Amino acid sequence: MLLTDVIVLWIALILTWALVNRGVPIFQELIRDMTDFFMEKALGPGADLFEGRSGSGAISWMFHGMLWLCLGATFTFVGMWLGHEPDAIASLSGIGYTPSVAELSAAATLASEGGIMMLLLGAGLHINGRLSGSGLASDTNAVLVSYAYSTGLLLGFIGAHVGGDWSNYLETANGVLTTMAVVAIIANHLLTIGQRTNMAIQPSQWLIIFGLSVPMVMCVACMIVGIDEAVYETFGVIPMLASALAVAHYVVPSEAGVPLWSRTLAGATVFLTFVTLSPIGVTAADSDLSVGSAGLMSIMFAASMVPILAVGMNIFSTARSNWAAASSSPACTMVMIGTFMLVASAVGSLFVGSDAHSSGELIHMQGPMDTLFLWGAMGMIAMGGVTACFPAAANRSLHSESSSRTVLWMFGGGATLAFLFSMSASMTTAAMVEAVSVNELDLLDMSATDDLTVLASIAFYAVTIAAMMMMLNMIRGGFSGTPLATASPTGLSATRMALTPGTTTIRQLLAAGAGIDTEIDVISDSEGDEEE
After folding, report:
1. Which of 246, 240, 217, 205 has the alpha carbon at shortest distance from 113?
2. Is residue 526 over pLDDT 50?
3. What's the pTM value of the predicted model, to 2 decimals?
4. Looking at per-residue confidence, does 265 or 497 come out higher?
């Protein structure tokens, strides 16, 4: 059964590639015209409510995403604090707000994941429009569906608090609205690629299209032929992960001003991300899995490490080609830190996910791994994407570059420390519980665990403040930021370079940061003999 599900996944990937690359020859023009009609003209007065200027769609998604990210970070911090101080918000009972820790956790997770996904989708809209050379097909539709997606998140956020039947109704409405919004975004991306002037489809574009389309195709396949729950569970993270990889492949070369280090590694990342099964987010064991299926699942989990390691190597090698420009860019630094955390979270999730389908002894590590992935990896890459793409989409710089650097260290440092402290607390608690189960200890002092959870809450508070600072930086930059001189990305070039004797290529010189005005010194083997 598991092998059949994997084959269905591969067929879905090939089908998506064929439709994107070749289209449907007989109906291609008809489908393109109908898609264009339904995206704008068929909306009637709804489309007239929003301005369709270039970049407005990406800006709207990023603004909404940052708002939800601030809300999610706030509720995550409150939920963490209630874990060791249950009466911290008891005063809000006077206005009838008495949520449980479980309700706060569900609401915080919904807002956080929704906010980060909206940031990545907004950056993806800008990236696809820029790489296609023709701009986004419909900024008006992108703005409109950003409100639909945000409305769905609002309904789900309320449903996480009310409980009962209304909670189920609101969660269903949330699923319907967000799914319809994603379908509209997929159509917008496909229409943009269909109108492209740059003929080659870049790796970031493939990651965006596959990341959004393949899970949709698998949902249809699940309704038709049925998909094993253990396999279906691995698709929840694919849209966010693929969108983050697309942002990383675009931001680092753009900010460093050099081409991507290896197109081969980029192609391997695109291919292997979708033909393997990711262990990230896998939480519960499935008793229906046989020993052979569990073994195959572990092999697929291990294979999913290859694209993560490939993107890490590719990104850091690209940045090394022009390290001065890459390290001086807050956006590029955020993406590189997020990529490093992605590799760490993927390796940790490999053990936790594989264990979830066997003994379940590492289940206590699931929470810290989710924190590292969501806030450390996805959060940092999303913030880097916003820092790079928002000014280009709005044609205005952010209000303060120093604020961007402060956000970089507060967000990254807070997420890292929160993960480390929560992981230490989880491991300490698990060790104490195991000691009690074997009667090694009669009396346990849990003060160490309490101290670690307090430190984790304090560390995560920095993430909340950083998200709010970034939101203010975007608002001020969007309305009063310095207009950019050009809408096209410009790369920094070195003023002077020193080379040792030997052979090289123009491509290697360009990758190292050389420009048309760069002075090149060729250092001779004999001392003091220098040739310019």
Report:
1. 240
2. no
3. 0.84
4. 265
